[in-house]
Amino acid sequence: MNFYSALSNKISKKTAKIGIIGLGYVGLPLALQFAKKKFNVIGFDIDIYKLSLLKKDKSYIKHIPNSLIEKYKSRIKFERNFQKIILVDVIILCLPTPITSRFKPDLSYIKKTLENIKSYLSKGQIIILESSTYPGSTRDFISPYLKNFNIGKNFFLGYSPEREDPNNKKYSLETIPKICSGFTDNCLNITKNLYSKILKKVVTVSSLETAEFVKLYENIYRSVNIGLVNEMKMIANKLNLNIYEIIEAAKTKPFGFQAFYPGPGVGGHCIPVDPYYLSWIANKNNVKTNLIYHAGKINSDMPSWIIKETIRKRKINKVLIIGVAYKKDLDDTREAPSIEFIKILRKKKIRIDYHDPNVKYLKSRKLKKTYASKNLNSQMLKKYDCVIIITDHSKLDYELIKKNSRFIVDTRNVFSKKLSNVLKL
Length: 425
Ligand SMILES: NC(=O)c1ccc[n+]([C@@H]2O[C@H](COP(=O)([O-])OP(=O)(O)OC[C@H]3O[C@@H](n4cnc5c(N)ncnc54)[C@H](O)[C@@H]3O)[C@@H](O)[C@H]2O)c1
Fold this sequence. Notes:
By secondary structure, this protein is α/β, with parallel strands linked by helices. It is built from 14 helices and 15 strands.
């Protein structure tokens, strides 16, 4: 039997059954996109709570509406039973790839999943990894689980990094070009054909390792440039210059400059994490990563610099943090700078509350305590001697904040005009 032609045909006819493992910020939108393009999908996760919501057509991700899950329900099944892997043709892994407490890549989620599914793999399937990881992971980590197969002939293996930008109104999964790679040419062709059925543009690269590197490079590019502009901000601050005016003017150069904006630090699953993945493999190969390290350090030091500058200007005892999600209009608090702010303020015995219209409760291993979002109103705002804007959600009432706060630290340039009660940091 020619397994390559069989799988290619199924993909062309959209009769290939898609299994997506890990239904988080990456996996759930991907499952919906395959369903939208008329593929049948089984979405796997170990999180019983998430599965129970999805089975009731409920989304747990703020920017994915329930209506979308309801719309495609006839084509997606949600499962915790990994035996059902035997039923699918395509297995896409959208699993977390965090760092350990010693800042090393943690591929344990991928390992655990492979252990769970290895007995249900069969000839003619493809596994594609989408998680961000260091160059060499797919080959060194996944292919050993496929030693009973002939990769490229009767089983296929690909890597295609996710470029999801949650809630980006301009670019969607369908319009963001997708990097594809394969263990062999057959693996690459199948990966490429599969994604070209659900999105507009596929870009192929010559190896799994190249594709893995591309993803890290993209995120490190952001980390380094954000680090650079945060350093520019600290210098401009000392010289009494407005960094935003400087960026706007620099941005008029039509070539060789891309504007990045300073902020309270970086958050989310990618930008604070991915530099460690590349540094780890670089160090293993005796390459020292100075620029990547220092950019990451500048970004992670932002909360402490902002608090130090605030305290230099004002005595504060009680702070209200506005916005704890790592990014505007999201509800995701993973690696959010707000957590570091709270930790530092707490150490200084400063009382803290927060308000975030998207995050009702703030839980983090690093805080060892759950905070609840306070309702925002004029009376309560007056109680705080400092309000720190960390996330500039669109639906916040900035007029109310401006009018009723005694002192505001604006880390996002929400108030573009100079105001007597606003310190931009
Ligand atoms: N979130 C983003 O915007 C984004 C963008 C690009 C790339 N990525 C990368 O994509 C990968 C996934 O990120 P995410 O944001 O979707 O993570 P996530 O934490 O939102 O989702 C991961 C899902 O995997 C599930 N899971 C964990 N272990 C499992 C197991 N053994 N079996 C089945 N399911 C399991 C979790 O319950 C969760 O639902 C990461 O490598 C991340 O770096 C994320």
